[in-house]
Amino acid sequence: xxxxxxxxxxxxxxxxxxxxxxxxxxxxxxxxxxxxxxxxxxxxxxxxxxxxxxxxxxxxxxxxxxxxxxxxxxxxxxxxxxxxxxxxxxxxxxxxxxxxxxxxxxxxxxxxxxxxxxxxxxxxxxxxxxxxxxxxxxxxxxxxxxxxxxxxxxxxxxxxxxxxxxxxxxxxxxxxxxxxxxxxxxxxxxxxxxxxxxxxxxxxxxxxxxxxxxxxxxxxxxxxxxxxxxxxxxxxxxxxxxxxxxxxxxxxxxxxxxxxxxxxxxxxxxxxxxxxxxxxxxxxxxxxxxxxxxxxxxxxxxxxxxxxxxxxxxxxxxxxxxxxxxxxxxxxxxxxxxxxxxxxxxxxxxxxxxxxxxxxxxxxxxxxxxxxxxxxxxxxxxx
Length: 383
Prior knowledge:
Blueprint: E1 2-3, H1 14-25, H2 36-55, E2 63-66, H3 69-84, E3 90-94, H4 99-109, E4 114-118, H5 128-134, E5 139-143, H6 157-167, E6 172-176, H7 188-191, E7 195-199, E8 210-214, H8 240-255, H9 257-278, E9 283-285, E10 292-296, H10 302-311, E11 314-315, H11 329-333, H12 338-341, E12 344-348, H13 355-375
Parallel strand pairs: 1-11, 3-4, 3-5, 5-6, 6-7
Antiparallel strand pairs: 2-8, 7-8, 9-10, 10-12
């Protein structure tokens, strides 16, 4: 099997599986219980909190566990907007954000907020200068992702933070770092973000867990009311198996992060070079993140290509797995022609990817091009 859909989800690493299994079979106590099993579970949760915090250079008390990146984005936007409402009702984001951010912004518009959606440049990024020009006295929240989930474009979040501060604005800065964690360096101090979203299953943890970094001193209102877990901000019995798996995955990934990033980037470059050589008319979109590559082959619609590749045990996607059946809003915002968008497939690597995966991918795409180019009347290249 050649799994190259890691931007959708990753295979849980052995450390994460072991941590989750232990929490489900041995350390199954409720972390809020006062007996020994409860205290052990609470200790396991706090150890995982420290592991995640270390990955982003935060203090453990700034990490709050959620059910995933989507909840973390919702929490950041709704609670951030609520906290700042007394100062204004203007929000800035980009047209290429994940739907968790975009749909939250649309919901906030229904609550009386005004949202500016900034378009990207041809590379899929939004400059700090463009954000600065969109700031107003009544701007209370800026949300710009760190790595785009469809193109791998890296946004200049630290520059945006400095621009906000230089303008004298009191707006909070949120960044969705779900696709950035353990792919590029993520340091909350240098980024200057007030709020930062993370997800476990993108870094070889298990599904059902994420985290929101909340900068120390920022007093967000509670997102979920109940028994007072997560410092009273996100109540509900903590999902110990998922949380400990997240911590274990972060710890394991951090140990080999530098060499993994170099190797993944080399695999992406290998794929890009082979595809441009074998299918010269293909369009390749490759941002600065090492793990995401989007390819569009004229005359080869995404879904039939994905199905053909799957028959050969090569697994890719047509874009965000959270937006099935819809034309990519990211590629549309970048100004790509509809016929290119409709033929786009996203390839995404992980630290478990290898050269054999790239060879299988390129061979399958070359075959797809030959088959669909012939059926659509396009002339397939020789060889």
